[in-house]
Amino acid sequence: MMRLAIASAAAVLVGATLANAAEPIALRDMGSFHVGGRLVEISGKPVKEVTFTPGGVPAKVDPNGTYQVEQMYVQYFLPANEKGAYPLLMWHGGGLTGVTYETTPDGREGWLNYFLRKGWAVYNSDAVERGRAGWAQYPDIFKSEPVFLTTANPFERFRIGDGAGSYDPDPAKRKLMPGSQFPNEGYENFVKQNVPRWTTTDDAIIAAYLAEIDRVGPSIILFHSQAGSFGFKVAQARPDKVKALIAVEPAGLGDPAKADLLKNIPTLIIYGDYIEKDSRWPKIRANGLAFADAVRAAGGSVDVVDLPQAGIKGNSHMVMMDKNNAEVAALIQKWLEGKGLTK
Amino acid sequence: MMRLAIASAAAVLVGATLANAAEPIALRDMGSFHVGGRLVEISGKPVKEVTFTPGGVPAKVDPNGTYQVEQMYVQYFLPANEKGAYPLLMWHGGGLTGVTYETTPDGREGWLNYFLRKGWAVYNSDAVERGRAGWAQYPDIFKSEPVFLTTANPFERFRIGDGAGSYDPDPAKRKLMPGSQFPNEGYENFVKQNVPRWTTTDDAIIAAYLAEIDRVGPSIILFHSQAGSFGFKVAQARPDKVKALIAVEPAGLGDPAKADLLKNIPTLIIYGDYIEKDSRWPKIRANGLAFADAVRAAGGSVDVVDLPQAGIKGNSHMVMMDKNNAEVAALIQKWLEGKGLTK
């Protein structure tokens, strides 16, 4: 009894040590690149004189000419002791960037560090028109206006708060989902991670993701929310290069008519908690289940995990930031190992 | 003679090995955070229905409410074996992001890796309205329109090409500065790193940088181009927290009337090549020299290095990307060691 208790306490300590990042991360290399995009001509506009720095020397800027647009940004971390059979590409959701997978809004390690520590070569990116990818002028190049979100919007829409009006600037006065695992105290930091987005750039985003996978080579894609459609569609366009798909709360899907293209790609779809309490997520999840069925009917293998049914409760839409993010990451890691995708 | 030749060849090989990143980078931690910013109210606008994902379920988006704006993004890499006496903050120039210090446009290691390998804790950031910092809607919050650059503009303005008309889409047809060290073959990738920028956000940028240094604590700042004024002004606002300043081709400066606030901060200012061939840089450099004189007159210590006079020739405005970037980094490292800023 005593011996078991000690062993158990030791196991808890080891777990805590890993979570606190005591082990150094050894990288054989790290760096970044941009990929994809196209050139666009703009003409017929007057030359401007721009003083780039107040008090500085003015420079003439001719807005006519060729613009580079719709490229994307990729940052990579290659572990010294690589244990993943393929690189792991991380694709963020709408109005966000690769920051999604970095440190959580309350300062814990995110999935980037988690999977890097497990020996995966991780390529974390900013999609077209997000973050370090840059964005193109509108209405000249992008044809619509960008969408900006209020501080309250994601709180209510991402199943953190319990419905409309649940947000309050005072963390103590917010009405969280019962048992929510979202780090409420870090919500302001999460809001700071939000960036403007367009809703008319899907084709450009997919083109850039195709360029990424063509450059990196055979890969596993872990994708979230808006990237649901990107992950599945890129896999349908490059079925030989995509070695596994991990869809975390996918808001969009692939082409059901081409479900057979995914039949050789092991796929995991994960949904968080409180789906039935939301106005949109029951339908979004039902679409996902139907798509999974279509892939299975074509001979594919799709595992759908509703986290609460797997005993993991309280997850918001931002699963990778929730307080139990390491528990969900461990579930993904175990799935990858089970599929023989580790060395 | 033979022995010397062999020793020399071995030294070259060792150098090449280091440049090729053969040694693993050991990190005690890595991560990111956002810092600074403010809340702004917007009211009186109609509610929109937005379909975030084509074919997805529409969501109502009320544009009225509170917006988080003017925060900045910081990514940090903490070496397992820290040798810098203070963290090294890297601040990029105008229309750019922290990508400036990452892999060079032609795929070599940038200054982020260089200084990390030397044992510096590096905090590489995206300033307000750049990259992962996000940006605010205009004209509601930002009062001016953003500036976009054509593919040709930086080539001619950053002393890569030899004057107006020097750019050509075909790398072989470009008229480079004679002896240019800029990696011409990677110029398209450099253009992909450029992001839109405003010219009316200096105060917000400085406020966020102050928040960064208040969070990180006593630091050394390495800053480039537009950040010239940010580095010196932040140092004037936090003279006790800034332990050294490394200004790389500063396009702006601090307040000359407050030069005495910099008297205890060792300062290095670096200029590249071809200054006299440019229409703006002779004046920009003269302003820098005058500012250095003002700091010296107040009892400060400022070292100004014109790289060509130090025997390092061919540098563009983007010194940290030039083919000899490691040589310039070594000059900076030596200067830091000489100032007793390493452990």
UniProtKB/TrEMBL annotation, chains A, B:
Superkingdom of this protein's organism: Bacteria
Signal sequence extent: 1-21
InterPro entries referenced in this protein's UniProt entry, alphabetically: AB_hydrolase_fold, Carboxylesterase_BioH
Record has Signal as a keyword: yes
Keyword annotations: Signal
Protein name: Esterase
Organism: Bradyrhizobium jicamae
